[in-house]
Amino acid sequence: MSMRIVVLGAPGAGKGTQAARISDHFGTPTISTGELFRSHIAAGDELGQLAAGYIDQGNLVPDDVTTLMVADRLSLDDVAGGFILDGFPRTLAQAAALDRILGDRPLDGVVDFEVQIDAVIGRMLRRAVEQGRSDDTEDVIRNRIRVYHEKTAPLAAHYRERGLLISVDAMGEIDEVASRVVDALEHI
Fold it and tell me: Can you give the pTM of this predicted structure?
């Protein structure tokens, strides 16, 4: 099944985990902006050097650099049959850039992972302890969620208006959520 999908959701909603499950189920490659940043930085190419300069200073990589990386990745042959985008778009400006990149082959759907914020904070704090992420404090997590609500959450309304939004309850066990996502995607 060929599909062009974006995954949305608050930090800790399980987007990366579920994108991998969708990828495995449908045989569609996942494109994670985090992985793109790491790949370009490791390669030491021009985009990687630009991204590293921002990341090393603790800043977000600007839209234009991120968009160039995504456009470059979407030009490769392995995504001709579809893709799952995780981490892009994060703003309405990036959504408009994605539309320009895709041209006459628009998205098939946007999966919005709906979560209870207090449960997500608990999930992220547990993950921080398990993975030794000392910078993931409750204050930092709450700030990331606040930024998500300000900058990224408006994408849900944008894609709902376009008839592309697929809301999925992301609370529960990983397999349970994956089953909900696959079922929803099989009906687009």
Answer: 0.89
